[in-house]
Structures are given as structure tokens and as C-alpha cells.
Amino acid sequence: MNSPDSHRFDPPGRPAAPGSGWIEVVCGSMFSGKTEELLRRIKRARLARQPVLLFKPRIDNRYDAVKVVSHEGVTADALPVASADDLLGRVRAETAVVGIDEVQFFDGRIVAVAGILADRGVRVIAAGLDQDYRGEPFGPIGALLAVAEYATKLHAVCAVCGAHASRSQRLVASEAQLFVGGAAAYEARCRGCFVDDVLVSE
To answer: How does DSSP assign 175-192, residue by residue?
Structure first.
């Protein structure tokens, strides 16, 4: 059995024909390394000379408007899009791999779009939060996990006790699910230290 930190994944090969694509989901809490893992897979695809497109939701401009940026400072050029259909319209015929960062911020149509691309023979790699600040499934992530061929769940380190963290504790007073924030607004928590009905504020 793999340990909670055994998350390295490399697919069985390159999608080669319509209908032979697949969907991979990398999920977990804030600060669990989701974006780093997404960028690692994208880098390997590029090293294999596979045509790659990397997308991010336009709403997420915390660090850069046209780059995917991890909390550790790893970056890659990306196309910001406003919707799932906007993303679909930008995928070229020769594209072999599509990466999607912060997939939880997309509309529910992203599930169908990922399926359309996989049916075309595209490898789709989507990374995002699996739970919101209340500990509930975030946006389309639950449905996307259900149709994905591969799923990787990463863990952070609990900011309170040091255990494996699977939840994102919001530290600012906001009840909006689509609240985009970084290290000052969230911290990783384990199940025992997570507070799901209180917004912690300074």
C-alpha cells in the first residue's frame, strides 16, 4: 500500500488516437503541492515533445495573469480562460496534452469539456482543490473525479499539529466559496484541527 506521500504518477503512454485519451485529476488541500505535480507532468510531456497547452481560470490572478504559479514559486506560461467552453475553443487539433490548473474555479461544463477532449485522444491533467473552506466538494471537482481514469490526492502538513492535512482552513471572514486567496488567507489543517463552521479572523 502506498504511503500518503507516494503520489508520483506517470501515465502508461501517450494518447495516440481518438477515443484513447484520458483524464487525470490531482487534488488536495491548499499547500499540498497540486500545482507542482501538474507542472511536473506537463514538463515531462514537453520533454517527450508532445504538443501541450496549459490553462488557468482568468479569475485566479493572485501571482500572475498569464502564468501558472505554485506557492513555492514554480512557474509555467498558461492561457487564462473565462469558461470551460472558452478553454475548449482554444485547443488545437495537434494538441496531445491539456493541463488545467485550479479546476475548481471553472463552471460545471468543465467535466463535459474534459470528456470531449479525452474522447478526441487528448491527455487531460486537471489540478485543484477537492474541498472548499467548509470541507465540502468544491465546484465540479467531485464529478470530475468520478469520470477520471486516474486520481491523485495529495496532502499538506497541518499548520496546527503537523499531521497530514486534507483541508483548507480559511483565515479571513468571507462566506463566498469562490474566494481566491493565498498564504495569508488560508492554512492547511488535518481533520481534527479543521473548523468547518467558524471563520477565523484576526
So the answer is: --SS----TTTEEEE-TT
Neighbour-count burial of 130, counting CB atoms closer than 10 A to its CB (0-12 exposed, 13-18 middle, 19+ buried):
buried
Q: How far apart are the first and last CA of the chain?
A: 41
- Dihedral-angle region of residue 147 (phi above 0 means left; psi in -120 to 50 means alpha; beta otherwise): alpha
User: Phi and psi for 17 in degrees, rounded to 5?
Assistant: -150, 160
Share of the chain above pLDDT 70, in %: 74
Structural domains of the chain in order of their starting residue, each with its CATH number:
22-154 (3.40.50.300)
Q: Any catalytic annotation for residue 94?
A: no
**What global pTM score does this model have?**
0.83
Choose, from 24, 36, 37, 102, the residue flagged as catalytic: 102
